[in-house]
């Protein structure tokens, strides 16, 4: 079954994946002479300095300069929750009195940095390495299934899991829809924005529960099979590509809403787009504070694999229209199983 509706709401692009939450307002005083208020990363840079994640060493930030390994290590290490017992450093180029010494030790302790002979602290940092360091330091789920749309980051790419983690959380985006450019360097301004998003992620995001504003309760959102869900998304994007459509970005927050719908159908014993409790799919999304412009849903049951489920939707005109809708930008998928071992599949689409 398929269902589509467009619901117009104002959505701030800058809020990205944390649109459901407000972030504390900080003073608007210009901290650096070369970072004016209209600069695209002004808020992120200002916030990190104001809240102590970055030290203001001079009157100039040099936002367009590439970030070095030592600079990145100092700031990324602040994502760690607690100090770890670290082995002796093998680096011959990191002195104990270096300002970044402790940060490097901690990142080595958790495996975010390799403990080799040379640290090369003055060298620039590539996007793939930033993804790894942030994913590990923020304790993200970087070894779980995900669906990447980047053609330059495949399962054979060493940073695949790390890029998948930061991309799914909208901490790091691709340079284009199809390119992550893992070997490109990161500027100081980009690092500040990445850090701001990572801090927000750690502060607010918990993919295991979601708040039900209708009943003022917290609901579990454990997906029966994330691997199957991501495979459904991959097959969906593969089919869209045949029609020249851009891939849909996998959205963990949208997946949570889909999980609620799947569990709702199983526990309440119905198979319809309209929930007897939460109403239409877009009503449910609103109740769980998911922000969108357009929204659609495909549901299925009794199928026993992602391949058969997607094929069933493709062979149905209404479901196929949702899959090939050029306005959709995000996808989230959930699977649940009833007492008779029947699978329920929910595919949610959104436009942002």
Automatic annotation (TrEMBL):
Transmembrane segments: none annotated. It comes from Metalysinibacillus jejuensis. SUPFAM superfamilies: PR-1-like. This is CAP domain-containing protein. Residues 28-90, 146-209 form the SLH domain. The keyword Magnesium does not apply. CDD domains: CAP_bacterial (cd05379). The lineage of its organism: Bacteria, Bacillati, Bacillota, Bacilli, Bacillales. Pfam families: CAP, SLH. InterPro entries: CAP_dom (IPR014044), CAP_sf (IPR035940), SLH_dom (IPR001119). It comes from the Bacteria. Residues 1-29 form the signal peptide. Keywords: Signal.
